[in-house]
From TrEMBL:
InterPro entries with a match to the protein in the record: Iso_Racemase_Enz_sf, MaiA/AMDase, Maleate_isomerase
EC number(s) given by UniProt: 5.2.1.1
Gene3D superfamilies in the cross-refs: 3.40.50.12500
Modified residues (S-(2-succinyl)cysteine): C81
Protein name: Maleate isomerase
Keyword terms, alphabetized: Isomerase
Gene Ontology molecular function, alphabetical: maleate isomerase activity
Superkingdom as given in the UniProt entry: Bacteria
Length: 260
């Protein structure tokens, strides 16, 4: 039986084309399994190139975005730009999530939970017991190094990573997820207990998530699946979505290993 729809608020980079496709797709799968419907309501902050100055400007603009999307009486608000938060310094998601909660205060969405993709990813590591990971990132190497440092400050060792060296955010959104298994094949995953298949909200990955989890026998998470997990938990809904990898509980790592 279909239940009343929940309103999902999203703050996204102006050039983002992925979070507004992957998160709705994940929640459509959830609706098919569990019955609760969702609608999506976005505000955009300007971002063209993925560099430190542009990312800092986007973070400054995020409070305006939160106030705008809050007018829609959303049930949860997600700040869907992982690297913009991570570029502000280790642990920055804590203060930024609190600031955006403050931007909702006194408005139509004053009681809406606030999550960020950066916070969601590191909290998902903890929830899944992922202490040593390999990472696929679309960024230039220096920015990947920053993201790796952020993860390691949160208690996760990054054993290996690959930088695809794409600085234009629209071009990141055009990367083919069918290439991700090849990128993973080039990583040293012999002693890791999980893979971050897309350390970016803009790099498409959903079609490859379950494929890579099944082929490697390792838990696979992405910025999008971790964010969706926290959206569902914030709404008090089961964080289980078919074909979406370990972050959304579709299969246990042991079951994935048996499928190899």
């Amino acid at each position: 039986m279909r239940r009343p729809s929940r309103r999902i608020g999203l703050i996204v980079p102006s050039s983002n084309t992925t979070m507004e496709t992957e998160i709705p797709e994940l929640l459509r799968r959830h609706e098919a399994e569990h019955g609760t419907g969702f609608t999506f309501h976005s505000s955009r902050a300007r971002l063209h190139n993925v560099d430190a100055e542009s990312l800092a400007r986007m973070v400054e603009d995020s409070a305006r975005c939160a106030a705008e999307v809050g007018d829609a009486e959303v049930d949860v608000l997600a700040y869907a730009c992982l690297v913009a938060v991570m570029a502000q310094g280790t642990g920055a998601h804590v203060g930024i999530e609190e600031r955006l909660r403050g931007a909702l205060a006194g408005g139509a969405s004053a009681n809406a939970p606030m999550v960020s993709s950066a916070g969601a990813l590191v909290r998902t590591f903890a929830a899944l017991g992922m202490r040593r990971v390999a990472v696929v990132a679309p960024y230039m190497p220096d920015l990947t190094k920053l993201v790796v440092g952020y993860m390691e400050h949160a208690g996760v060792t990054v054993a290996d990573s690959v930088s695809l060296s794409v600085s234009d955010n629209c071009a990141v959104g055009r990367l083919d997820p069918a290439d991700l298994p090849r990128h993973v094949a080039g990583l040293d995953i012999g002693d890791v207990d999980g893979i971050v298949l897309s350390a970016c909200v803009q790099m498409p990955s959903l079609p490859a998530v379950q494929q890579v989890e099944d082929s490697t026998g390792l838990p696979v998470v992405t910025a999008a699946t971790a964010t969706t997990r926290e959206i569902l938990l914030a709404l008090g809904l089961p964080a289980v979505v078919p074909g979406a990898g370990a972050a959304l509980g579709s299969r246990t790592p042991a079951a994935a290993a048996e499928a190899r």
